[in-house]
Amino acid sequence: GALIGLICLSWLFLIVALLIKLEDPKGPVFFKQVRVGKDGKEFYMYKFRSMVTNAEELLDSLLHLNETTGAMFKMRNDPRVTKVGKFIRKTSIDELPQLWNVLKGEMSLVGPRPPLPREVAQYTEYDKQRLLVTPGCTGLWQVSGRSSLGFKDMVELDLMYIEKRTIFYDIKIILKTIKVIFCRENAY
């Protein structure tokens, strides 16, 4: 599925890369970040860059503006997000390079979102159950409210997914993901 996606969407990759370079010619097209996968194994997750190049350095000055609960950081009008970034985040196009992570076996098409190491450092033993399966590009949390849900809700939805997962459940979540992308609700 990932290989087919990469081939079929190569035209979109090209357009997005061009738009990112037009807005910020000096910055990279892709953003890679260490994430925590199955059994706590770290890997680099890839995305289209949707923020200014020094976004990670600016994070500390914004932590007090966090709009979600728990170990995550979410901010509706994050000043680090570029103009192109706003669009590709709202449509989840920024996530498409993760198909490369799926191809490498680090991620699955469906599963819990891979957290950052700094988030996992705040996890309870209960929260760490999210790390029992391969993380996914999309999952139950993303199709159930995305950024409008807090950390506890995300953990509960991920654990519900882990308990109920089947190929048919994954297909249902993928179809819901397509619907969510076109509705563009609760994405920031």
Describe this protein's structure:
This protein is globular. 31% of the residues are buried. Strand 1 and strand 2 (42-48) form a beta hairpin. The mean pLDDT is 89. The strands form two sheets. A two-stranded antiparallel sheet has the order 1-2. It has a two-stranded parallel ribbon with strand order 3-4. It has eight helices and four strands; from the N terminus they run ααββαααβαβαα. With 188 residues, it is an alpha+beta fold.
Short structural description:
Helix content is 39%, strand content 11%. It is an alpha+beta fold and 188 residues long.
Summary tags:
188 residues, alpha+beta, two-stranded antiparallel ribbon, two-stranded parallel sheet, 4 strands, globular
Structural class designation: alpha+beta
Low-confidence stretches at least 5 residues in length (pLDDT < 50)? none
Number of helices: 8
The assembly state of the depicted protein chains is single chain
User: Which word captures the global form?
Assistant: globular
The span between the termini is 26 Å
Query: How many extended strands?
Result: 4
Estimate what percentage of residues fall within beta strands: 5-15%
Proportion of helical residues: 25-40%
Roughly what is the average pLDDT, rounded to an integer?
A: 89
Task: Give the helices and strands as they follow along the chain.
Answer: HHEEHHHEHEHH
Radius of gyration: 16 Å
Instruction: Give me the side-by-side strand order of the main sheet.
Output: 1-2
Largest sheet: 2 strands, antiparallel
